[in-house]
Amino acid sequence: MNELDYGTPAVESDHEVTLHIDGISVTVPAGTSVMRAAVKAGVMIPKLCATDSLQPFGSCRLCLVEIEGRRGYPSSCTTPAAAGMTVRTQTPKLAELRRNVMELYISDHPLDCLTCAASGDCELQSTAAQVGLREVRYGMAGANHFTAAKKDVSNPYFIHNPAKCIVCNRCVRACEEQQGTFALTISGRGFASRVTAGQGESFMDSDCVSCGACVNACPTAALIEKSAVRLGSTEKSVVTTCAYCGVGCGFKAEMKGTQVVRMTPWKDGKANEGHACVKGRFAWGYATHKDRITKPMIRAKTSDPWREVSWDEAFEYAASEFRRVQEKYGKNSVGALVSSRCTNEEDFLVQKLVRAAFGNNNVDTCARVCHAPTGYGLGQTLGTSAGTQTFKSVEKSDVILLIGSNPSEGHPVVGSRLKRRVREGAKLIVIDPRAIDMVTAPHARATYHLKLRPGTNVAMLSALAHVIVTEGLVNEQFVAERCETQAYADWREFAARPANSPEAMEGVTGVPAADVRAAARLYATGGNAAIFYGLGVTEHSQGSTAVIAIANLAMATGNVGREGVGVNPLRGQNNVQGSCDMGGFPDIYPGYRHVSDNATRELFEKAWSVNLQAEPGLRIPNMLEAALDGSFKGLYCQGEDPAQSDPNTQHVQAALAAMECVVVQDLFLNETAKFAHVFLPGASFLEKDGTFTNGERRISRVRKVMPPLAGKADWEVTLGLAAALGYPMHYDHPSQIMDEIARLTPTFAGVSYDKLEKMGSVQWPCNDKKPQGTPLMHVEGFVRGKGRFFNTQYVPTDEKVMPRFPLLLTTGRILSQYNVGAQTRRTENVQFYGEDVLEIHPHDAEERGIKQGDWVGIQSRAGDTVLRATVTERVQPGVVYTTFHFPESGANVITTDNSDWATNCPEYKVTAVQLVKVDQPSAWQKRNAREDEKQKKLLAGVAGK
Amino acid sequence: MNAILNTIFAKHRQQPGALLPILHDIQHELGYVPEEAVPLIARELNLSRAEVHGVITFYQHFRQTPPGKHLVRVCCAEACQANGSEALAAHAAKRLQGEDETLEPVYCLGLCSMGPAIQIDETELHARVTPQKFDALMHKLGEKA
Predict the structure, then answer these.
(1) Which residues of chain A are within 8 Å of residue B46 when distances are taken between CB atoms?
(2) Which residues in chain A have their CB less than 8 angstroms from residue B54's CB?
(3) From start to end of A667-797, where are the E strands?
(4) Residue A670 to residues A554, A637, A887, A927: CA-CA distances in angstroms?
(5) By the 8 A CB rule, do A805 and A547 touch?
(6) How far apart are alpha carbons A751 and A761 in whole angstroms?
(7) Same domain assignment for residues B107 and B128
């Protein structure tokens, strides 16, 4: 189960050294520790405080060695290997020293190995055996820590038992080095030294973010998962990929039969390199939650009770309804949403079903409401609808520009990477309306926080461009070689206009011009500069413009095409990149080829033996509009919940209610399922094989560790529906679907399950030219040929403050909850965050007589809802903020149907609102609660519910 | 408290490694380092609360609670130990039990040839302190107050 632990991290060096360890000659990069070199030579030196995820510390004194020509017994973890060095790790003297040290450790450790949860997986136990400890001459009666401190069980997922702690400091270092939270310390000194959370409080009350790095690092049972305590040791581990955010962390599912005992981060996972966050590490219990629907269900009307039926009956009913609707309202009256949560293979099948079996192009994905502008903006400027780097590349960055992204909440493992790089000396520029955690993280404070008004990204980015152009900071050689000349000249003229200067934009963005100028200079001249951005960029009326403006900055300063630079969109969902790559759009086939392109269409027509439509289909908002117009009547919704996640909830609900056949495929009876006629039970990522593609274009395997609760994986469900529609598709395993994707998609041509097995993961494009994949994009030239600049004229959103709606609401997410919360709300993560709250500045709160914890009514032109207030200076005056994780909050009742001009991505990030203190839920919330109650009752007849 | 802290912070703003000087100043001004000061110190220095807490608890010198009326330190370093400071410390603990005085060990007062030594209120030093002498000193201290 345990991967080989080299004791200290790998070191990069331009030269190697050869040394001799116990007579074995071994060659390692200069700077490698003697301990790591020894492991490479197959020699395991005893250790307790060393582990290869952490820098060497040299405190446990077990890894002592003898080095010829040196005095004493240096610790091998802190001693760098040197050329010609002769090391002995096993001598009688060393054996005696190690036994004596171990004896002292054990004299203060409870001898309850047989009943200890870590038994068999305890480094103290195995190291005691390794050094041959046979007796503890001090006895066990002396001063000890067995009962001094109480067990801390406050965290829902792990316990801290100080009695079992050997104060090796690994947890404290993991919290600092890996996670960057610095929530732990060693308090006291000498014998009184104890691991302490915060200022001596419980883990839950401390700054701990429950990432589990400390638990992973702990060599004993001092920090251990509650699930491991409850379930005992594991039998096997299966490497898979997390199903939460777009970071795509590799995990080991540690199993007992088909039961998950724990999920531990995979050291060789290239996206996360052994780190994790509270969601992937701990919040997997939803997979077996009692709310899971495990039988197909149908009903004629949404006011009818659900009726459990066989899979075949469900498929037949859904198919006959879709066909009936198409006959009555036309071929284009039905469509589907592919899931950004499902696998590439499953997404591919759904779009195939739409194009081949429905016979239209009405397929869209939730990327529409998050990163569609990224696809458009980066496609137009650079030529690829994806990020340019690997996450690891940030280790070479000197400047990090973070805009519209809150990675320590939304993409925690990337957040930790960024913080680490800032601690190492890189400069950080944060552009965000809120003082997010990254602004003041311990030892990683941002150099500049440009606290702009919501909705003014383009003004800010144009102002940064202005400074770069007018102060002569453009990398002219790069631009001349790599970019289109005329477009650049036009842009240069545009950017230099006085109207785009920081001074002119100050009134718009609210950010002092001097800070903007300083930040622009830093970005342009500070060395390798990387941009990371998120939905705070895309989810605006000018989302695509902002993405283009970001690409402009990177091209103008030559920050594309090598390590440490680039444009890095942080994708929201585990496979939102994949759902886009797989053609989950009404206008493109897999691999971003337009449906009007004859050659591509013929390729698919031949492969699928059907005629395909050459005109793009409907986007999500168009489907909803068409539903209200009466021309769109049937929706196959795979693993997506537009009734909660899409803006202007009342509009979405009305559109769904107007449809005649809504088929929902999901784990739970979600908000959209309340409008459904057919429910097809989905399978969690633990129940199926497939692949996810993360935000760095990395394709990683998802592996089945338990049988699907409902008997079918999602790809099998789509096959069933397709067959019932009269378009049978034949695959025995998802690997065959990937083979088809590879055959039909040039950027995936070299991808296969065999290759993924060998390489662990691969970044597309992967084909004959790049058989090992493409970690870095645009190295020689841009994918589109020459990079293209576009002018980015700032156009204020229609959503502005006015006397009736004097505040701007912006939305975001929180670490412990994920998106619509369907999964995380069904885990202990609700202990960290149990309801959406409204953040409001003290000034605005005081003006309205609002106090901490008050119920506040929020009104926009779209609707109104009620949330509890949190008064905080994290937001600026005039701006309020909330999350959208709980359906009853109705955050999207307030958001409007404003959207990005190019892609229809909704403007979640800016809504003009007014607040009033209230004492009861809004009318919508009451209605929604009644409807929720009613729909739950309709499940009542169904077994077990 | 906040005003005092802000003055202290301002004084050390340009100083690298300002945590210890700041803690000394706070203890000097307030007699101890209050729990509520820790988050503010952490924010000022871009550290975590835990780190500041770790440093405060590492050093015997820093107090987390207000001191008593008087601060009595008994030297427990090697030379004084050799001259019976352990017994003196035990006696002192008994003598001061229930009284509003703070008793602390200290490691070397520089009176190694005249142990056991004690220090009162960081101002007075007394050498060759026997239990009787200790009681007399405490009696005098009580009268002074």
Answers:
(1) 440, 442-445
(2) 185-187, 196
(3) 678-681, 690-693, 698-702, 761-763
(4) 41, 11, 9, 17
(5) no
(6) 10
(7) yes
Q: Which residue range(s) make up the domain with B112?
A: 70-144
Complete DSSP assignment for A88-130: E---HHHHHHHHHHHHHHHHTS---GGG-TTTTS-HHHHHHHH
Q: Mind listing the pLDDT tens digit for each residue in A23-67?
A: 999 999 999 999 999 999 999 999 999 999 999 999 999 999 999
CATH class of A158-288: alpha beta
The confidence score (pLDDT) of residue A820 equals 84
Given a contact cutoff of 8 angstroms between Cβ atoms, the answer to whether A620 and A337 are in contact is: yes
Share of chain A above pLDDT 70, in %: 99
In 3D space, the residue among A134, A136, A131, A132 whose CA is nearest the CA of residue A47 turns out to be: A131
Q: What pairing do the DSSP bridges indicate for beta strands A855-859 and A864-871? A: antiparallel
Q: What is the pLDDT of residue A211?
A: 97
Residue A305 to residue A302: CA distance in whole angstroms: 8
B50–A contact, CB cutoff 8 A: yes
pLDDT of residue A942: 67
**What is the number of structural domains in chain B?**
2
**Structure tokens given for A792:** 């980015």
Whether CATH 3.40.1000.10 fits A372-569: no
Indicate the helix (H) or strand (E) that contains A926. helix A923-938
Which DSSP string corresponds to A264-322? EE-TT-TTTTT---HHHHHTTGGGG-TT---S-EE-SSTTSPPEE--HHHHHHHHHHHH
Least confident of A166-175, A454-463, A645-654: A645-654
- pTM, two decimals, is 0.93
Confidence band (pLDDT; 50, 70, 90) for A941? Answer: low
Do B87 and B133 have their domain in common?
yes
Please check whether residue A337 is in contact with residue A366, taking contact to mean a CB–CB distance below 8 angstroms.
Answer: yes
CA separation (Å) from A125 to A116, A131, A225, A826? 11, 10, 18, 36
Q: Identify the CATH number of the domain defined by range A297-370+575-763.
A: 3.40.50.740
From B47, B49, B59, residue closest to A199, measured CB to CB: B49
Q: Which residues of A149-173 are buried (b: 16+ CB within 10 A; e: fewer)?
A: eeebebbbbbbbbbbbbbbbbbbbb
- How do beta strands A864-871 and A698-702 pair? unpaired
Inform me whether the pLDDT recorded for A419 exceeds 80. yes
Put simply, whether A30 touches B (Cβ < 8 Å) is: no
Q: What is the pLDDT of residue A296?
A: 97
Burial zone of B143 (CB within 10 Å; 0-12 exposed, 13-18 middle, 19+ buried): exposed
Of A187, A197, A206, the CB nearest to B57: A187
CB-based contact A207 B51, cutoff 8 Å: no
Cα–chain-centroid distance for residue A180?
Answer: 17
- Which tens digits make up the pLDDT trace of A894-939? 888 888 888 888 888 999 999 998 888 888 888 888 888 888 888 8
Torsion of CA B5, B10, B12, B16, to 10 degrees: 120
Tell me, yes or no, whether B131 lies in a domain.
yes
Residues A242-246, mean pLDDT to the nearest whole number: 94
- B105 interfacial to chain A (CB closer than 8 Å): no
Domain A16-90 has CATH 3.40.1080.10: no
Query: Quick one: average pLDDT of A501-518?
Result: 97
Report CB contact under 8 Å: B43, A206: no
Residue A430 reports pLDDT greater than 70: yes
In a domain, B129, yes or no: yes
